[in-house]
Amino acid sequence: MKVLLLNPTIPPRAIPILKDLSREPGIDLMVFFYSISAKNRRWQVNRKTIKFKYQILKSFDIPFGKNDYIPFTVSFNFLKKLLISKPNVVIAPGWADFPSYVSAIYCKLFGKKLILRSESTVYEDNWRRKVFMPLTKFMVNCADAYIAAGTRAKNYLVKLGAKKEKIFVGYSAIDVKLFSLVSKASWAEKVALRKKLGIGPKDRVVMFNGQLIIRKGVYDLLEAFKKILLSFPNATLLMVGYGMEMLGIEKYIRDNRLTKKVILTGFVDNKLLPKYYGISDIFVLPSREETWGMVINEAMASGLPVITGDKVGAGADLIKSGVNGYIFPSGNINKMVTAIEKLLKDRSKRVRFGMESRRIINSFGIDQLVEAILKSIYSVRQKED
Asked: Which domain of life does this protein belong to (predicted)?
């Protein structure tokens, strides 16, 4: 059976997932990437490590969003390559790109099967959603099966008209073993990295990782951290990542005299990232809007307690409040402060929550995602395939 999977970019996290999928007997997998990376991403991909069939399309992005980079992708040569490929099944990445719509029409015209992947939840309520809603419902109605990134994504698909029995939940996943292993660096390595970053040996590190954009709640976190320092002067905020608000955050740090307490690392390569989790005590993702939040998977695999906002998709499936972290109302700075302080003042709780994080995330690895994708494929399989 010929399966064509579409993906906007080549994120390093996706490579092991697609490699495992390509090994399934009876499935001839081809992956079309719209581009190698995106304007708002800086990851480097060693294409020699890609051990499955793939092609990179000629495409361009139509950007939406003033404070965030939200593209609608158009491809020049997708239709030609699609007709040459002649897949039995097409797995589309959602409804925010032109190739997905072309795939839906192709499947209808030629009697092929469309599987729709979705991370979207009810919480991303904005003008783009309202404008594109007719097209969104078109994609949902065309699909023969669905792969939802989590419980909230599944619920939103049902709200859009998808039948529950056709939805397969494949939780967004990372290489759990990799993060678990690398984050457990030797004490000497951790001391060296903390020293390099200017973190004191007795400092308690609150970590954030993600794009430095308003949607991620970065200014909420900075406001919260200012208050936390009044009670915990030995706390350090480690902000890993880059984004449109980098200059604004740097100014905020200067204006509020936080230069010795807030560390901006800029982009950190995926190979080094687990070590940054390894020197941290708590992980916080305060997003006001987040379909999933893969950094929560990474933090949990690294043995950290996690604090996140209630509009973060991953929180509904991965965070058990009072067990491996806390969930606060997104945008509520005082509630975020309370949650962080609970963990800063109690080392035994941090350790216990971190152990629970490792235990929980072991059930959300690559294997379960690959299994969900395969189940969706076999559910639409036709006799002639």
From this structure: Bacteria
Cα–Cα distance between 73 and 369 in angstroms, integer?
25
Distance CA 321, CA 47 (A): 40
Shared domain for 225 and 335, answered yes or no, is yes
223 and 348 in a single domain? The answer is yes
Q: What are the tens digits of pLDDT across the range 356-384?
A: 999 999 999 999 999 999 999 999 997 55
Give yes or no: residues 70 and 84 share one domain.
yes
Report the C-alpha gap between 298 and 175 in whole angstroms. Answer: 8
Distance of CA 335 to CAs 73, 134, 231, 332, 359, Å? 38, 37, 15, 6, 26
Domain count, the chain: 2
Beta bridge partners of 321: 325
77 and 186 belong to one structural domain = no
Token pair belonging to 201: 């040996």
Identity at 322, one-letter amino acid code: G
* Mean residue pLDDT across the chain: 94
What is the three-class DSSP state of 313? helix
Enumerate residues 6+ apart whose C-beta is below 8 A from 58: 75, 76, 77
Residue 90: phi and psi, rounded to 5, are -120, 130
233 vs 210: CA distance, rounded Å: 25
